[in-house]
Specification:
InterPro entries: IK1_05631-like (IPR049920). The chain is built from 9 helices and no strands. With 300 residues, the protein is an all-alpha fold. The chain has one domain.
């Protein structure tokens, strides 16, 4: 006998409480992005300016340049801890949205606190964004919890290519800065000690950001791909047996999604916007394909 989620996901996700959670989640991620990219801009700009001053001004002491580089490095470390906390808050809010919309139990695999109503309200009230309706594109009845699995797979597919593209962009930028600095050091005949103190140490925070951004975005993409492979196994098993998976399968998969969100790498809005339309189209087409597969096997 068919069992459907009631009320259906496409209705619950558009209720006022659900929209409030999405607004709070968006705002919390925006807060994390502001910290991350402000610090990243300061690190790159400050490092380049200090290194350039070493070339242009003879009186600019390399020791002072090195001290400024260390200061930028310290600011980077402090900002990272604050950014991490904001990401964890956003992940917990998004987990609350998913568990309520999917009607799943709260995660026991991760020590994640349920966000308080006041915490959600404060973040939601500050949100000034676009339309949050129809977060998941599923709009047809599918046997439960196959409908949950479809939404989870759509979520996992989102952003993998964007993470890899941003990782490559930042890595190329960092290597270009390193290469340019090395060329100027060689052409100027600058002594090794002065080059180390006046050029490379001030740029060290930028190189640190380059490496961390490349690693974290590559890891985010890998975690999502790993979880999506697990989701594909569950899906294929259901299609072959013509039986919906268990809710335990979906809860375990949700744990993997939560894990990826807790350490999710941030991508600037301007870069994300360039690939957003393509990602949305892929997600909608994927959801439509999953629904059609379920229909052919009598599961929708």
């Amino acid at each position: 006998m068919a069992n459907f989620t009631a009320p259906p996901i496409w209705e619950t996700q558009n209720e006022s409480e659900s929209i409030r959670l999405l607004a709070a989640q968006r705002q919390s991620y925006s807060d994390a992005k502001m910290i991350h990219f402000s610090q990243m801009t300061l690190t790159f700009t400050g490092g380049i300016l200090v290194a350039t001053s070493t070339f242009l001004f003879e009186a600019f002491r390399p020791v002072l340049a090195a001290a400024l580089g260390c200061l930028l490095l310290g600011l980077s470390v402090v900002a990272s801890s604050r950014e991490k906390r904001k990401i964890e808050i956003a992940a917990s809010i998004q987990e609350k949205f998913d568990t309520e919309v999917f009607q799943l139990n709260w995660s026991r695999a991760h020590k994640v606190s349920t966000p308080s109503a006041s915490e959600v309200a404060r973040a939601a009230l500050r949100h000034r964004g676009g339309n949050l309706n129809n977060w998941y594109s599923l709009n047809q009845p599918v046997n439960r919890p196959l409908d949950v699995l479809i939404c989870q797979r759509a979520n996992l597919g989102w952003g993998i290519a964007t993470h890899r593209a941003w990782a490559a962009t930042v890595l190329c930028t960092g290597l270009a800065i390193l290469g340019t600095a090395t060329v100027f050091v060689s052409l100027s005949g600058m002594p090794a000690t002065k080059a180390l103190l006046g050029v490379y140490i001030p740029l060290l925070p930028a190189f640190k950001e380059t490496g961390e951004t490349w690693l974290s975005n590559s890891r985010s993409a890998a975690l999502k791909e790993e979880a999506d492979l697990e989701a594909a196994k569950i899906w294929n098993s259901s299609m072959q047996s013509r039986r919906a998976p268990t809710e335990q399968h979906c809860r375990k998969l949700q744990d993997k999604i939560l894990e990826s969100r807790m350490t999710n790498s941030l991508i600037p809005d301007w870069f994300n916007g360039m690939l957003r339309n393509r990602e949305e189209s892929v997600m909608k087409l994927g959801t439509s394909d999953y629904v059609n597969q379920a229909k052919k096997r009598g599961l929708a």
